[in-house]
Specification:
Layout (H helix, E strand, L loop, with lengths): L1 E4 L8 H9 L4 E4 L9 H9 L7 E8 L2 E8 L2 E3 L1 H7 L5 E3 L2 H8 L17 E4 L8 E7 L2 E5 L1 H8 L2 E3 L2 E3 L2
Parallel strand pairs: 4-7, 7-10
Antiparallel strand pairs: 1-2, 2-9, 3-4, 3-6, 5-11, 8-9
């Protein structure tokens, strides 16, 4: 597993640029992305040797006509009803992938909660708080950033709420 500290990451993605600008401690992890992988998040967890409960996927949903970012563990799924409730909405559905890409400036499978083209309301699953660090997309497939959940919440102005459902 390749590891780079922020001092070794000149330029980088909008996500790493935002982290560096904020003075936030983070570690970048890269791996060889397999385009045929059925789950980007599970692929990242396996490639990095990190528990799937500590690797979080960034999903974009439509809540009552407005886009909202949900950050949940790759080991589970997003509870759309809980997401809507967390932002004071009534109905939530997964956003159109093209709308998610346009709004965030990232491609599907590489959407980061950080450094988005247009900052969207963000909800981070409450389970993140049980880990010292979590991994989220650094802005492209095959690139993850590891940071503390509190730093992620602060930088994205996220609401913490139980929006993830465990699979099992």
């Amino acid at each position: 597993m390749a590891k780079k500290s922020r001092k070794q990451q000149p330029g980088g993605t909008p996500a790493t640029v935002a982290l560096t600008a904020a003075g936030t401690a983070y570690t970048v992890h890269s791996y060889a992305h397999d385009p045929s992988s059925p789950s980007y998040g599970e692929e990242a967890a396996e490639a990095l040797g990190v528990s799937a409960e500590r690797v979080f996927k960034t999903l974009v949903a439509d809540v009552d006509g407005a886009l909202v970012v949900a950050v949940v563990p790759v080991a589970g799924s997003l509870d759309l009803k809980a997401l809507a409730s967390a932002v004071g909405g009534k109905r939530a559905a997964m956003a159109d992938p093209a709308a998610a890409e346009r709004s965030t400036g990232y491609v599907r499978g590489g959407i980061s909660p950080l450094g988005q083209r247009r900052r969207l309301p963000t909800v981070l699953d409450a389970s993140a708080g049980s880990h010292a660090t979590i991994c989220v997309s650094a802005g492209r497939r095959g690139l993850e950033v590891e940071l503390s959940p509190s730093d992620l919440a602060a930088l994205t102005e996220a609401v913490l709420a139980p929006i993830g459902r465990t699979q099992g």
